Write a sequence for this structure.
Protein backbone atom coordinates (compact mmCIF):
# COMPACT_ATOMS: atom_id res chain seq x y z
CA UNK A 1 0.00 0.00 0.00
CA UNK A 2 1.29 3.48 -0.83
CA UNK A 3 2.63 5.60 2.03
CA UNK A 4 0.51 8.53 3.19
CA UNK A 5 1.98 11.99 3.66
CA UNK A 6 1.90 11.44 7.42
CA UNK A 7 3.76 8.11 7.10
CA UNK A 8 6.52 9.85 5.14
CA UNK A 9 6.57 12.84 7.51
CA UNK A 10 7.21 10.53 10.50
CA UNK A 11 10.43 9.33 8.85
CA UNK A 12 11.76 12.80 7.96
CA UNK A 13 14.17 14.78 10.23
CA UNK A 14 11.38 17.30 11.14
CA UNK A 15 13.80 20.23 11.33
CA UNK A 16 11.89 22.36 8.80
CA UNK A 17 15.26 23.53 7.44
CA UNK A 18 13.76 24.31 3.98
CA UNK A 19 16.80 22.89 2.12
CA UNK A 20 14.40 20.86 -0.03
CA UNK A 21 12.65 24.00 -1.23
CA UNK A 22 9.51 23.31 0.83
CA UNK A 23 8.55 25.45 3.83
CA UNK A 24 8.25 22.49 6.24
CA UNK A 25 8.98 18.78 6.40
CA UNK A 26 5.22 18.15 6.37
CA UNK A 27 4.81 20.18 3.18
CA UNK A 28 7.65 18.16 1.66
CA UNK A 29 6.00 14.88 2.68
CA UNK A 30 2.69 15.97 1.15
CA UNK A 31 4.48 17.03 -2.05
CA UNK A 32 6.06 13.57 -2.24
CA UNK A 33 2.68 11.84 -2.18
CA UNK A 34 1.58 13.78 -5.25
CA UNK A 35 4.86 13.20 -7.08
CA UNK A 36 5.83 16.89 -6.88
CA UNK A 37 8.90 16.15 -4.75
CA UNK A 38 11.36 13.29 -4.56
CA UNK A 39 13.24 12.01 -1.53
CA UNK A 40 16.55 12.94 -3.16
CA UNK A 41 15.69 16.59 -2.52
CA UNK A 42 16.07 16.14 1.24
CA UNK A 43 19.80 15.86 1.99
CA UNK A 44 19.21 15.16 5.70
CA UNK A 45 17.08 12.03 5.65
CA UNK A 46 18.79 9.05 7.31
CA UNK A 47 19.85 6.02 5.26
CA UNK A 48 17.51 3.72 7.17
CA UNK A 49 14.56 6.07 6.63
CA UNK A 50 15.46 6.35 2.96
CA UNK A 51 15.48 2.57 2.58
CA UNK A 52 12.14 2.25 4.38
CA UNK A 53 10.48 4.94 2.25
CA UNK A 54 12.00 3.61 -0.98
CA UNK A 55 10.84 0.07 -0.18
CA UNK A 56 7.32 1.19 0.74
CA UNK A 57 6.93 3.44 -2.26
CA UNK A 58 8.44 0.98 -4.78
CA UNK A 59 5.93 -0.38 -7.32
CA UNK A 60 4.52 -3.84 -6.49
CA UNK A 61 6.17 -5.29 -9.61
CA UNK A 62 9.74 -4.09 -10.12
CA UNK A 63 10.62 -2.34 -13.37
CA UNK A 64 13.24 -4.29 -15.34
CA UNK A 65 15.04 -2.93 -18.38
CA UNK A 66 16.59 -5.28 -20.95
CA UNK A 67 18.77 -4.32 -23.91
CA UNK A 68 20.14 -1.00 -25.11
CA UNK A 69 19.21 1.69 -27.62
CA UNK A 70 15.76 2.31 -29.03
CA UNK A 71 14.91 -1.41 -29.09
CA UNK A 72 15.50 -1.79 -25.34
CA UNK A 73 12.42 -3.01 -23.49
CA UNK A 74 10.99 -2.35 -20.05
CA UNK A 75 8.76 -4.84 -18.27
CA UNK A 76 7.06 -4.72 -14.89
CA UNK A 77 6.06 -1.66 -12.85
CA UNK A 78 2.51 -3.01 -12.84
CA UNK A 79 0.07 -1.88 -10.18
CA UNK A 80 -3.25 -3.59 -10.94
CA UNK A 81 -4.78 -7.00 -11.45
CA UNK A 82 -7.27 -5.83 -14.05
CA UNK A 83 -6.64 -3.41 -16.87
CA UNK A 84 -9.90 -1.54 -16.25
CA UNK A 85 -8.77 -0.74 -12.67
CA UNK A 86 -6.23 1.68 -14.16
CA UNK A 87 -4.04 0.37 -16.98
CA UNK A 88 -1.19 -2.06 -17.60
CA UNK A 89 2.06 -0.14 -17.75
CA UNK A 90 4.41 -2.18 -19.95
CA UNK A 91 3.24 -4.49 -22.67
CA UNK A 92 4.34 -8.11 -22.73
CA UNK A 93 7.51 -8.51 -24.80
CA UNK A 94 7.27 -11.16 -27.51
CA UNK A 95 10.51 -13.10 -27.95
CA UNK A 96 11.26 -15.51 -30.78
CA UNK A 97 13.68 -18.35 -30.19
CA UNK A 98 16.84 -19.23 -32.11
CA UNK A 99 18.74 -22.45 -31.44
CA UNK A 100 22.52 -22.78 -31.46
CA UNK A 101 22.06 -26.14 -33.25
CA UNK A 102 21.10 -24.20 -36.37
CA UNK A 103 23.71 -23.43 -39.00
CA UNK A 104 25.16 -19.93 -39.18
CA UNK A 105 23.25 -19.28 -42.38
CA UNK A 106 19.99 -20.43 -40.81
CA UNK A 107 20.55 -18.21 -37.76
CA UNK A 108 21.14 -15.19 -40.02
CA UNK A 109 18.02 -16.02 -42.06
CA UNK A 110 15.94 -16.45 -38.91
CA UNK A 111 17.19 -13.18 -37.42
CA UNK A 112 16.22 -11.40 -40.63
CA UNK A 113 12.80 -13.03 -40.54
CA UNK A 114 12.37 -11.90 -36.93
CA UNK A 115 13.35 -8.34 -37.91
CA UNK A 116 10.68 -8.39 -40.60
CA UNK A 117 7.87 -9.19 -38.15
CA UNK A 118 6.60 -5.61 -38.08
CA UNK A 119 2.90 -4.86 -38.57
CA UNK A 120 0.93 -1.70 -39.19
CA UNK A 121 -2.14 -1.67 -36.95
CA UNK A 122 -4.41 1.38 -36.88
CA UNK A 123 -1.59 3.63 -37.97
CA UNK A 124 1.02 2.32 -35.54
CA UNK A 125 3.90 -0.06 -36.15
CA UNK A 126 4.05 -3.08 -33.85
CA UNK A 127 6.67 -5.79 -33.75
CA UNK A 128 8.16 -8.61 -31.76
CA UNK A 129 10.68 -7.41 -29.18
CA UNK A 130 13.36 -9.96 -28.35
CA UNK A 131 15.42 -12.87 -29.63
CA UNK A 132 16.00 -15.83 -27.34
CA UNK A 133 19.13 -17.84 -28.15
CA UNK A 134 19.09 -21.27 -26.54
CA UNK A 135 22.15 -23.38 -25.91
CA UNK A 136 20.98 -26.81 -27.06
CA UNK A 137 24.24 -27.75 -28.80
CA UNK A 138 26.03 -28.74 -25.60
CA UNK A 139 29.01 -26.59 -26.53
CA UNK A 140 29.77 -23.27 -24.80
CA UNK A 141 31.81 -22.18 -27.80
CA UNK A 142 29.00 -22.88 -30.25
CA UNK A 143 26.49 -21.13 -27.99
CA UNK A 144 28.70 -18.03 -27.87
CA UNK A 145 29.11 -18.14 -31.64
CA UNK A 146 25.35 -18.44 -32.20
CA UNK A 147 24.73 -15.53 -29.80
CA UNK A 148 27.30 -13.44 -31.69
CA UNK A 149 25.68 -14.16 -35.06
CA UNK A 150 22.18 -13.42 -33.73
CA UNK A 151 23.31 -10.18 -32.09
CA UNK A 152 25.07 -9.05 -35.28
CA UNK A 153 21.89 -9.54 -37.27
CA UNK A 154 19.24 -8.01 -35.03
CA UNK A 155 18.97 -4.96 -32.78
CA UNK A 156 16.43 -6.66 -30.53
CA UNK A 157 17.52 -7.46 -26.96
CA UNK A 158 18.82 -11.01 -26.52
CA UNK A 159 17.85 -13.66 -24.01
CA UNK A 160 20.79 -15.96 -23.21
CA UNK A 161 19.09 -19.27 -22.52
CA UNK A 162 21.24 -21.82 -20.77
CA UNK A 163 21.38 -23.26 -17.25
CA UNK A 164 25.16 -23.58 -17.55
CA UNK A 165 27.08 -20.62 -16.11
CA UNK A 166 30.04 -21.37 -18.39
CA UNK A 167 27.83 -20.97 -21.47
CA UNK A 168 26.50 -17.65 -20.19
CA UNK A 169 29.99 -16.48 -19.28
CA UNK A 170 31.30 -17.22 -22.79
CA UNK A 171 28.36 -15.46 -24.43
CA UNK A 172 28.75 -12.44 -22.16
CA UNK A 173 32.35 -12.03 -23.28
CA UNK A 174 30.78 -11.11 -26.62
CA UNK A 175 27.53 -9.28 -25.90
CA UNK A 176 27.51 -8.12 -22.27
CA UNK A 177 27.42 -4.49 -23.47
CA UNK A 178 24.09 -5.18 -25.20
CA UNK A 179 22.58 -5.85 -21.76
CA UNK A 180 20.91 -9.20 -22.47
CA UNK A 181 18.67 -11.11 -20.08
CA UNK A 182 20.39 -14.10 -18.48
CA UNK A 183 18.11 -17.13 -18.41
CA UNK A 184 18.36 -18.69 -15.92
CA UNK A 185 19.40 -19.02 -12.32
CA UNK A 186 17.95 -21.98 -10.45
CA UNK A 187 18.40 -23.79 -7.13
CA UNK A 188 21.68 -25.30 -8.33
CA UNK A 189 23.48 -22.55 -10.23
CA UNK A 190 22.13 -19.36 -8.60
CA UNK A 191 25.43 -18.30 -7.02
CA UNK A 192 27.40 -18.35 -10.29
CA UNK A 193 24.55 -16.83 -12.29
CA UNK A 194 24.05 -14.05 -9.74
CA UNK A 195 27.76 -13.32 -9.83
CA UNK A 196 27.65 -13.00 -13.62
CA UNK A 197 24.60 -10.73 -13.44
CA UNK A 198 26.33 -8.53 -10.86
CA UNK A 199 29.63 -8.32 -12.74
CA UNK A 200 27.91 -7.25 -15.96
CA UNK A 201 24.98 -5.41 -14.37
CA UNK A 202 22.37 -7.55 -16.12
CA UNK A 203 18.82 -8.68 -15.47
CA UNK A 204 18.62 -12.29 -14.31
CA UNK A 205 15.74 -14.70 -14.88
CA UNK A 206 15.15 -17.06 -11.95
CA UNK A 207 13.41 -20.41 -12.32
CA UNK A 208 11.96 -22.67 -9.63
CA UNK A 209 10.49 -26.13 -9.95
CA UNK A 210 7.34 -24.55 -8.49
CA UNK A 211 6.35 -21.30 -6.79
CA UNK A 212 7.75 -22.37 -3.41
CA UNK A 213 11.18 -23.15 -4.82
CA UNK A 214 11.05 -19.98 -6.91
CA UNK A 215 10.54 -17.90 -3.77
CA UNK A 216 13.42 -19.69 -2.02
CA UNK A 217 15.84 -19.05 -4.89
CA UNK A 218 14.75 -15.43 -5.28
CA UNK A 219 15.31 -14.82 -1.56
CA UNK A 220 18.81 -16.31 -1.82
CA UNK A 221 19.62 -14.11 -4.81
CA UNK A 222 18.29 -10.92 -3.20
CA UNK A 223 20.32 -11.83 -0.08
CA UNK A 224 23.36 -11.81 -2.38
CA UNK A 225 22.44 -8.22 -3.25
CA UNK A 226 20.80 -8.65 -6.69
CA UNK A 227 17.27 -7.47 -7.40
CA UNK A 228 17.10 -7.16 -11.18
CA UNK A 229 15.05 -10.31 -11.45
CA UNK A 230 12.57 -11.88 -13.88
CA UNK A 231 10.49 -14.80 -12.60
CA UNK A 232 9.80 -18.23 -14.12
CA UNK A 233 7.67 -20.53 -11.97
CA UNK A 234 8.90 -23.53 -13.97
CA UNK A 235 5.39 -24.57 -15.06
CA UNK A 236 4.97 -25.42 -18.75
CA UNK A 237 1.41 -26.79 -18.80
CA UNK A 238 -0.86 -23.90 -19.83
CA UNK A 239 -3.31 -24.14 -16.93
CA UNK A 240 -0.47 -24.39 -14.40
CA UNK A 241 1.29 -21.40 -15.95
CA UNK A 242 -1.98 -19.46 -15.78
CA UNK A 243 -2.38 -20.37 -12.10
CA UNK A 244 1.18 -19.34 -11.31
CA UNK A 245 0.99 -16.12 -13.29
CA UNK A 246 -2.16 -15.14 -11.44
CA UNK A 247 -0.71 -16.05 -8.04
CA UNK A 248 2.48 -14.13 -8.75
CA UNK A 249 0.58 -10.97 -9.72
CA UNK A 250 -1.80 -11.26 -6.75
CA UNK A 251 1.03 -11.73 -4.27
CA UNK A 252 3.07 -8.95 -5.86
CA UNK A 253 0.17 -6.52 -5.46
CA UNK A 254 0.07 -7.47 -1.78
CA UNK A 255 3.72 -6.39 -1.72
CA UNK A 256 5.04 -9.88 -1.16
CA UNK A 257 8.52 -8.93 -2.31
CA UNK A 258 9.94 -12.31 -3.47
CA UNK A 259 7.25 -12.34 -6.18
CA UNK A 260 7.37 -8.62 -6.93
CA UNK A 261 9.07 -9.00 -10.32
CA UNK A 262 7.92 -9.38 -13.93
CA UNK A 263 7.68 -12.88 -15.38
CA UNK A 264 8.91 -14.85 -18.37
CA UNK A 265 6.79 -17.60 -19.95
CA UNK A 266 7.29 -20.10 -22.76
CA UNK A 267 4.72 -21.19 -25.33
CA UNK A 268 6.19 -24.65 -25.60
CA UNK A 269 3.62 -26.76 -27.47
CA UNK A 270 4.96 -28.43 -30.62
CA UNK A 271 1.57 -27.79 -32.27
CA UNK A 272 1.91 -24.27 -33.73
CA UNK A 273 -1.79 -23.43 -33.23
CA UNK A 274 -1.63 -24.58 -29.62
CA UNK A 275 1.57 -22.57 -29.09
CA UNK A 276 -0.16 -19.39 -30.30
CA UNK A 277 -3.08 -20.09 -27.97
CA UNK A 278 -0.67 -20.60 -25.07
CA UNK A 279 1.14 -17.36 -25.87
CA UNK A 280 -2.22 -15.57 -26.04
CA UNK A 281 -3.13 -16.81 -22.57
CA UNK A 282 0.19 -15.65 -21.15
CA UNK A 283 -0.04 -12.24 -22.82
CA UNK A 284 -3.55 -11.84 -21.38
CA UNK A 285 -2.47 -12.94 -17.93
CA UNK A 286 0.47 -10.95 -16.79
CA UNK A 287 3.50 -12.32 -18.64
CA UNK A 288 6.31 -9.77 -18.91
CA UNK A 289 7.90 -11.85 -21.69
CA UNK A 290 6.49 -14.69 -23.77
CA UNK A 291 8.92 -16.79 -25.79
CA UNK A 292 7.71 -18.75 -28.80
CA UNK A 293 9.28 -20.64 -31.64
CA UNK A 294 7.48 -19.20 -34.66
CA UNK A 295 8.50 -16.64 -37.26
CA UNK A 296 5.27 -17.10 -39.19
CA UNK A 297 3.49 -13.73 -39.49
CA UNK A 298 0.16 -15.61 -39.30
CA UNK A 299 1.15 -16.70 -35.76
CA UNK A 300 2.62 -13.40 -34.64
CA UNK A 301 0.01 -10.92 -35.93
CA UNK A 302 -2.88 -12.25 -33.79
CA UNK A 303 -0.66 -12.09 -30.72
CA UNK A 304 0.38 -8.53 -31.47
CA UNK A 305 -3.27 -7.57 -32.03
CA UNK A 306 -4.27 -9.22 -28.75
CA UNK A 307 -1.45 -7.44 -26.94
CA UNK A 308 -2.46 -4.11 -28.45
CA UNK A 309 -6.02 -4.59 -27.17
CA UNK A 310 -4.90 -5.50 -23.66
CA UNK A 311 -2.15 -2.96 -23.21
CA UNK A 312 -3.89 0.08 -24.68
CA UNK A 313 -4.51 2.58 -21.90
CA UNK A 314 -8.31 2.54 -21.42
CA UNK A 315 -8.11 6.16 -20.24
CA UNK A 316 -6.43 7.29 -23.48
CA UNK A 317 -8.16 6.15 -26.68
CA UNK A 318 -5.81 5.86 -29.63
CA UNK A 319 -6.47 8.83 -31.89
CA UNK A 320 -5.36 9.98 -35.33
CA UNK A 321 -4.37 13.53 -36.10
CA UNK A 322 -7.37 15.65 -37.14
CA UNK A 323 -6.43 16.70 -40.67
CA UNK A 324 -7.37 15.96 -44.28
CA UNK A 325 -6.67 12.35 -45.28
CA UNK A 326 -6.56 11.49 -48.97
CA UNK A 327 -7.69 8.05 -50.08
CA UNK A 328 -6.76 6.88 -53.61
CA UNK A 329 -5.53 10.27 -54.84
CA UNK A 330 -8.79 12.27 -54.78
CA UNK A 331 -9.56 15.32 -56.91
CA UNK A 332 -11.82 18.39 -56.72
CA UNK A 333 -14.98 16.36 -57.37
CA UNK A 334 -14.24 13.62 -54.86
CA UNK A 335 -16.56 13.02 -51.92
CA UNK A 336 -15.72 14.31 -48.45
CA UNK A 337 -16.43 12.05 -45.47
CA UNK A 338 -16.51 13.24 -41.90
CA UNK A 339 -15.88 10.93 -38.97
CA UNK A 340 -14.19 11.08 -35.55
CA UNK A 341 -10.50 10.76 -34.80
CA UNK A 342 -10.86 7.51 -32.83
CA UNK A 343 -8.27 5.35 -34.61
CA UNK A 344 -10.45 2.30 -34.91
CA UNK A 345 -13.32 4.32 -36.40
CA UNK A 346 -11.04 6.24 -38.73
CA UNK A 347 -9.27 3.15 -40.08
CA UNK A 348 -12.59 1.34 -40.59
CA UNK A 349 -13.85 4.28 -42.66
CA UNK A 350 -10.53 4.62 -44.52
CA UNK A 351 -10.44 0.88 -45.28
CA UNK A 352 -14.03 0.82 -46.52
CA UNK A 353 -13.58 3.93 -48.67
CA UNK A 354 -10.49 2.32 -50.20
CA UNK A 355 -12.41 -0.93 -50.75
CA UNK A 356 -15.07 1.05 -52.65
CA UNK A 357 -12.31 2.12 -55.10
CA UNK A 358 -13.61 5.69 -54.93
CA UNK A 359 -11.00 8.41 -54.37
CA UNK A 360 -12.19 10.49 -51.41
CA UNK A 361 -11.22 12.81 -48.59
CA UNK A 362 -11.76 11.95 -44.94
CA UNK A 363 -11.93 14.60 -42.22
CA UNK A 364 -11.59 13.05 -38.75
CA UNK A 365 -12.91 15.56 -36.22
CA UNK A 366 -11.00 15.82 -32.94
CA UNK A 367 -13.29 14.09 -30.42
CA UNK A 368 -10.47 13.23 -27.99
CA UNK A 369 -10.27 9.85 -29.69
CA UNK A 370 -13.81 8.64 -29.01
CA UNK A 371 -16.13 7.00 -31.54
CA UNK A 372 -19.04 8.56 -33.43
CA UNK A 373 -21.94 7.85 -31.09
CA UNK A 374 -19.86 8.25 -27.93
CA UNK A 375 -18.56 11.56 -29.26
CA UNK A 376 -22.08 12.72 -30.12
CA UNK A 377 -23.43 11.68 -26.69
CA UNK A 378 -20.52 13.44 -24.95
CA UNK A 379 -20.97 16.65 -26.95
CA UNK A 380 -17.61 16.12 -28.71
CA UNK A 381 -18.95 15.33 -32.17
CA UNK A 382 -21.32 18.18 -32.90
CA UNK A 383 -22.40 20.29 -35.87
CA UNK A 384 -20.19 23.09 -34.54
CA UNK A 385 -17.10 20.87 -34.35
CA UNK A 386 -17.65 19.47 -37.83
CA UNK A 387 -18.12 23.02 -39.13
CA UNK A 388 -14.85 24.08 -37.43
CA UNK A 389 -13.10 21.13 -39.06
CA UNK A 390 -14.43 22.03 -42.51
CA UNK A 391 -13.25 25.61 -42.04
CA UNK A 392 -9.85 24.95 -40.46
CA UNK A 393 -8.76 21.90 -42.47
CA UNK A 394 -8.50 23.67 -45.84
CA UNK A 395 -10.87 21.21 -47.53
CA UNK A 396 -12.69 24.14 -49.14
CA UNK A 397 -9.58 24.75 -51.27
CA UNK A 398 -9.32 21.10 -52.29
CA UNK A 399 -12.83 20.46 -53.63
CA UNK A 400 -14.94 22.39 -56.07
CA UNK A 401 -18.26 21.07 -54.69
CA UNK A 402 -19.78 21.81 -51.28
CA UNK A 403 -21.10 18.45 -50.11
CA UNK A 404 -20.05 16.57 -47.00
CA UNK A 405 -21.07 13.09 -45.89
CA UNK A 406 -21.70 12.56 -42.18
CA UNK A 407 -22.13 9.15 -40.46
CA UNK A 408 -25.70 7.82 -40.52
CA UNK A 409 -25.66 7.44 -36.75
CA UNK A 410 -25.56 11.22 -36.31
CA UNK A 411 -28.11 12.18 -38.98
CA UNK A 412 -29.55 14.47 -36.36
CA UNK A 413 -26.62 16.87 -36.95
CA UNK A 414 -27.55 17.44 -40.59
CA UNK A 415 -29.77 20.54 -40.45
CA UNK A 416 -27.64 22.49 -38.00
CA UNK A 417 -24.44 21.69 -39.90
CA UNK A 418 -26.05 22.71 -43.18
CA UNK A 419 -27.16 25.97 -41.63
CA UNK A 420 -23.72 26.72 -40.15
CA UNK A 421 -21.59 25.74 -43.11
CA UNK A 422 -23.74 26.40 -46.12
CA UNK A 423 -22.61 22.96 -47.39
CA UNK A 424 -25.05 20.32 -48.51
CA UNK A 425 -24.94 17.68 -45.81
CA UNK A 426 -25.52 14.10 -46.94
CA UNK A 427 -26.26 11.36 -44.45
CA UNK A 428 -24.03 8.36 -45.03
CA UNK A 429 -24.52 4.77 -43.90
CA UNK A 430 -24.76 3.84 -40.23
CA UNK A 431 -21.78 1.51 -40.56
CA UNK A 432 -18.68 2.13 -42.66
CA UNK A 433 -19.21 -1.29 -44.26
CA UNK A 434 -22.10 0.33 -46.15
CA UNK A 435 -19.88 2.91 -47.85
CA UNK A 436 -19.38 1.00 -51.11
CA UNK A 437 -23.12 0.59 -51.64
CA UNK A 438 -23.73 4.17 -50.55
CA UNK A 439 -21.20 5.54 -53.05
CA UNK A 440 -22.63 3.45 -55.88
CA UNK A 441 -26.02 4.97 -55.21
CA UNK A 442 -24.44 8.43 -55.05
CA UNK A 443 -22.61 8.12 -58.36
CA UNK A 444 -24.62 11.01 -59.75
CA UNK A 445 -22.86 13.38 -57.41
CA UNK A 446 -19.26 12.51 -58.14
CA UNK A 447 -17.13 11.71 -61.12
CA UNK A 448 -14.52 9.12 -60.20
S1 LIG B 1 15.24 19.31 3.55
FE1 LIG B 1 14.47 17.56 4.72
S2 LIG B 1 14.65 18.22 6.82
FE2 LIG B 1 14.76 20.06 5.60
S3 LIG B 1 12.65 20.80 5.44
FE3 LIG B 1 13.02 19.52 3.69
S4 LIG B 1 12.29 17.54 4.35
FE4 LIG B 1 12.58 18.70 6.20
Amino acid sequence: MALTGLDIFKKLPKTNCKDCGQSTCLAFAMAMTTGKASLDQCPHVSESAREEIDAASAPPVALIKIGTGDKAIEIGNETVLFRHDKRFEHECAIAVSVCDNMTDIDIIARAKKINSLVFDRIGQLHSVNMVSVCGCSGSAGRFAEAVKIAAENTDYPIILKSEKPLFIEKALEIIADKKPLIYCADAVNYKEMTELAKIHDLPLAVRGSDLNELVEVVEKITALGWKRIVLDSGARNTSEVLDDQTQIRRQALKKYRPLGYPTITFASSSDPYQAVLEAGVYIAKYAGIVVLDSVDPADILPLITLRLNIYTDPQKPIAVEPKIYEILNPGPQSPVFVTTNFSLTFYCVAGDVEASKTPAYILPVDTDGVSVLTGWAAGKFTSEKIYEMIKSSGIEDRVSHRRVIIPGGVAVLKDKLQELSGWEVLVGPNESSGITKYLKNSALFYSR
